[in-house]
Amino acid sequence: PDEVLADTETKETVRAALDALPPMYREVLVLHHFQDLKYREIADTLNVPIGTVMNRIFRARKKMARTIERRAA
User: Fold this and answer.
1) Which residues contact 43 (CB under 8 A, 6 or more apart)?
2) How far is Cα 58 from Cα 72, in angstroms, rounded to an integer?
3) Do 29 and 58 contact (CB within 8 A), yes or no?
4) How far apart are CA 14 and CA 8, in angstroms?
5) CB neighbours of 68 closer than 8 A, spacing ≥ 6?
6) Apex CA 12: angle with CA 10 and CA 13, to 5°?
């Protein structure tokens, strides 16, 4: 039961951090992590350079980490 509760809390924390992201950051993370698209596929889908995709994913992960750290404190 404790493990299930901890897993549920973790999922809720990650979901809240994802929802708090600006749309352009949330979009690339969803495409990459939930729809399993490669960077090139995301770039083609969004009609942006691959470097933009890489930058947005990097920044999105950083913002999520900060949000999760703040919630944990």
Assistant:
1) 49, 50, 52, 53
2) 21
3) no
4) 10
5) 13, 14, 17
6) 65
pLDDT higher than 70, residue 20: yes
- Supply φ then ψ for residue 47, to 5 degrees: 60, 50
Confidence of residue 5 (pLDDT cuts 50, 70, 90): low
What kind and span of H or E run contains 62?
helix 50-72
Cβ atoms 59, 49 nearer than 8 A: no
| 56: confidence class by pLDDT, cuts 50, 70, 90 | very high
Interacting residues of 60 by C-beta distance below 8 A, sequence separation 6+:
21, 25, 26, 28, 29
Select from 4, 34, 44 the least CA-distant residue to 60: 34
Q: Looking at the predicted structure, is the pLDDT value of residue 32 above 60? A: yes
